[in-house]
Design brief:
Order of helices and strands: HHEHEHEHE
Strand order of the largest sheet: 1-4-2-3
Structural class: alpha+beta
Oligomer: single chain
Number of domains: 2
Shape: rod-shaped
């Protein structure tokens, strides 16, 4: 009698487990399609089968297999969820590390840029004037190819300095009339100013002057001295420098 009672009790427990498993499996089925049995599920089925058989014979084996399979599948899903979460956390950590590295590299670049900017500011503060001279042929105001690069560099530098102006002064040698040399020196200065404007210097920051032969130092017959007198001088002047009177003739 006791044996029969124990079997009935075991069968009742098994039915309760089956009912629980059936409800849980039905709920899982509504959430997502049934996938291929996992390793944990197979282990649970075998384990439940063995335990159920030992406890309640064939009926217990069936009930135990069902319960074991459900528990194994539950374990498999939780394990897969944990692995996915760990993978996401690993990806986030990698992204944070890369972001930190990028920020560090940017800080280094900014520091280097500030250092170079400070060096440039110091150099400009210690330089009262920068000057470029452009030579010309007799009775000519065209600019040679060799003179272009220095003019463009000086123009670009002046364009980058808000407080800087460029004084463009044209000169002629002592030969010829004052009227001719005044006009010629002016044309030479205007030709140089046009190149500086191409480099980015605003017109209001260009002071254009024509001095004719007023500052010529070559004596009559001194061709080399005359060549030195045929020129345009470009000077970079910053705020506070004394300005020379402008000659617009």
């Amino acid at each position: 009698m006791n044996v029969f009672t124990n079997k009935l009790r075991t069968a009742a427990v098994g039915l309760a487990l089956v009912s629980s498993c059936t409800v849980a499996l039905a709920q899982d089925g509504e959430a997502a399609p049934k996938a291929k049995a996992s390793k944990q599920e197979n282990i649970g089925v075998v384990t439940g089968l063995a335990v159920g058989a030992a406890a309640g014979g064939p009926v217990g084996a069936i009930l135990g297999a069902a319960a074991g399979g459900w528990l194994g599948e539950r374990y498999h899903k939780e394990s897969a969820s944990n692995k996915s979460l760990q993978a996401d956390l690993g990806t986030s950590e990698s992204q944070r590390t890369q972001l930190a590295q990028n920020v560090s590299e940017l800080n280094v670049s900014l520091t280097e840029a500030r250092r170079k900017g400070d060096q440039l500011d110091l150099a400009l503060k210690n330089t009262d004037e920068l000057q470029v001279d452009v030579g010309f042929r007799t009775n000519d105001y065209s600019i040679s190819t060799q003179a272009m690069p220095p003019l463009l560099k000086l123009g670009a530098l002046a364009a980058s300095m808000p407080d800087a102006k460029l004084r463009v002064a044209g000169f002629a040698d002592s030969r010829g009339s004052d009227e001719l040399n005044d006009a010629l020196s002016r044309r030479r200065a205007e030709a140089v100013a046009a190149v500086l404007a191409q480099a980015g210097v605003a017109p209001e920051r260009l002071i254009v002057e024509g001095h004719g032969r007023s500052e010529s130092t070559a004596v009559e017959g001194d061709l080399d001295g005359c060549a030195l007198d045929r020129k345009v001088t470009v000077r970079l002047e910053r705020a506070g420098n004394t300005a020379v009177a402008r000659n617009d003739q």
